[in-house]
């Protein structure tokens, strides 16, 4: 399916990444990445294995710091605020910039409690308020109709595709401004993949989305903007080209991007 896209005329950067270097210990994984992620748009990050796509998006809400000793240089501004400033509240940052991973990771609890989890951690809503939040997050993640009669059942009994939409509902429940998705459909069957793509399309506009994907057709279908990453001779990831998705896939400026999107490399 191809979705109609309308590239916005006034673009507001939700995230501004400036000359970002990222190191695991002493090993540099990405080198001087500079790009904007525009509000309300879907931005795809594509590129060959090991070029730093996951590293890059995990640096955008500082979830990468959970992976051990990492070092970050450069800046990431979230609506003008430096997310690497010492005073940043990490819980709040990760609520505002939510994340969905490749492998669905529901908590071992009921469907309802999964979605309510983050909301309960941050506030004390009444039962009725919480019911409303859970319902609207599940509707937002296009899962409500499938689970509304089984909210008390374990999330682990859902199919892989349903679990992934539940994880999206869990992220939506705390009202993020940005949703980062790291290959959200790569472990799913084609029908579940299509549902995730439709969902991305329906969330676009009110939500800013950055998605890492290996699937170039998927990037072409769902995104408004695309960043192509690759590695240099020393195998450090860099961003080669960033542009409107249509341009990247039909008339890229850099020959490395052209080769990759035309399947000649990677
Ligand atoms: N936790 C980690 N510790 C050390 N090195 C890591 C870690 N995670 C990733 N790397 C290294 O950083 C580089 C970039 O990895 P990353 O996973 O970001 O690439 P990717 O483009 O997302 O790859 P893939 O498409 O295979 O998922 C690789 O060389 C990888 O081995």
UniProtKB/TrEMBL annotation:
Gene Ontology molecular function: ATP binding; ATP hydrolysis activity; phosphate transmembrane transporter activity
What Pfam families does its record include?
A: ABC_tran
Coiled-coil intervals in this record? none
In terms of InterPro entries, this protein maps to: AAA+_ATPase, ABC_transporter-like_ATP-bd, ABC_transporter-like_CS, P-loop_NTPase, PstB-like
Where the record annotates domain ABC transporter, the positions are 15-261
Q: Which UniProt keywords apply?
A: ATP-binding, Cell inner membrane, Cell membrane, Membrane, Nucleotide-binding, Phosphate transport, Translocase, Transport
A Gene Ontology biological process annotation?
phosphate ion transmembrane transport
Record's GO cellular component, any one?
Answer: membrane
| UniProt KW Cell membrane keyword | yes
Return the SMART domains for the record: AAA
Task: Spell out the protein name for this chain.
Answer: Phosphate ABC transporter ATP-binding protein
Q: Which organism is it from?
A: Scytonema millei VB511283
């Amino acid at each position: 399916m191809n979705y109609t896209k309308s590239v916005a005329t006034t673009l507001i950067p939700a995230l501004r990444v400036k000359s970002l270097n990222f190191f695991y210990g002493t090993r540099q994984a990405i080198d001087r990445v500079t790009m904007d992620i525009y509000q309300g748009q879907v931005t795809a990050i594509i590129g060959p294995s090991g070029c730093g796509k996951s590293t890059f998006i995990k640096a955008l809400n500082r979830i990468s710091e959970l992976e051990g000793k990492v070092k970050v240089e450069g800046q990431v501004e979230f609506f003008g605020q430096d997310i690497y400033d010492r005073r940043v509240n990490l819980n709040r940052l990760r609520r505002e910039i939510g994340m969905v991973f490749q492998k669905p990771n529901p908590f071992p609890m009921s469907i309802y409690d999964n979605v309510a989890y983050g909301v309960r951690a941050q506030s004390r809503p009444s039962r009725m308020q919480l019911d409303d939040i859970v319902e609207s997050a599940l509707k937002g993640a296009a899962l409500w109709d499938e689970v509304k009669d089984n909210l008390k059942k374990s999330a682990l009994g859902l199919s892989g595709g349903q679990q992934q939409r539940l994880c999206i509902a869990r992220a939506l429940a705390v009202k993020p401004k940005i949703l980062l998705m790291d290959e959200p459909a790569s472990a799913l069957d084609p029908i579940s993949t299509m549902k995730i793509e439709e969902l991305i399309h329906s969330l676009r506009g009110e939500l800013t989305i950055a998605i890492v994907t290996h699937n170039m057709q998927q990037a072409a279908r769902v995104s408004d903007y695309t960043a192509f990453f690759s590695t240099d001779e020393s195998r450090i990831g860099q961003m080669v080209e960033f542009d409107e998705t249509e341009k990247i896939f039909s008339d890229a400026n850099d020959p490395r991007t052209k080769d990759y999107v035309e399947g000649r490399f990677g």
